[in-house]
Amino acid sequence: MLFTVIWLLLTVFCYSLSAALYRKCHATPILHPILPSALLVYVFIYLLDEKVSSYLTYTSLIHWMLAPATVVLAVPMFKHLYVVKVLGWQGLAAMLVGGIMGPISCFLILWGSGVDTALLLTSLTKSITTPLAIETAEAIGGIPSIAAVMVILTGISGAMMSQWVFTLTGCSHSQSKGLALGTAAHAVGTSRAALIDEHAVACSSIALCLNGVMTSLCLPIIISMIK
């Protein structure tokens, strides 16, 4: 029980410190709290000569809380539901195409590289937020821990490269930017959209939620039918 409390407190401390650094550095994508906090936790595991399996056991409460954290996504979805009415079918079509093309392109690249089936299935969850990706990867036969890493890297790279992409494509419409960031780069992209304007963050929030929910619902059904 003592080790459980200690590791939970250390994990919360690492995340809080990383979140403070993220805010201090004006939401720089590469410093998103998930990445430095994971590195800090690893340092503690190494210094204290602890096994990763033991750490996962001690902090199983955090994993259990992924379920209620996922349900909380209903709040921004309800809050920004008006965006669906404003954008109409064009906005929904953009989310649908983006939500399909991102994972499929990654899947095909990895498939061409000859990686194993578990990693291929895991890649299909790369563009949805972490709690949904972990649970979905487990449901379809993927690797939850790798799914979390893929989601983090996708979000960070998407947020970092977004401005270059918008400049290259001549995109100046804030709502379009928000849709792209939310669909392709989930929560990290949404934090980047918050630096554009309120319209961008609203579109990004609804894209994040709808893409995540639809992917987590459809993938297990599709994979089970294929199997």
From TrEMBL:
It is found in: Membrane. Keywords: Membrane, Transmembrane, Transmembrane helix. It is a multi-pass membrane protein. The keyword Transferase does not apply. InterPro entries: CidB/LrgB (IPR007300). The chain crosses the membrane at residues 29-48, 55-75, 87-111, 199-223. This is LrgB family protein. It comes from Fluctibacter corallii.
